[in-house]
Amino acid sequence: YTTHANRYLARWNLTAARMDLFVCHRATLRQHGIVYQRDLRARLGVSRATITIMLRRMEKRGFVERRRSDGD
Question: Is the pTM of this model over 0.90?
Fold first, then answer.
């Protein structure tokens, strides 16, 4: 599945992992109006470093916009 999905998603410069992140991000955003990296990490089961890299790449492609939390 992943190989087939990656081939299909390559036209948008996405991978199956990035698509999982995108879908999770959109669902959380619609439900709560805001998305925290810690919530994405928990839902996807990835490390802090991994989610940071994934989000940075998604932002570079224009799929997400990151902002520093007021609580940071």
Answer: no
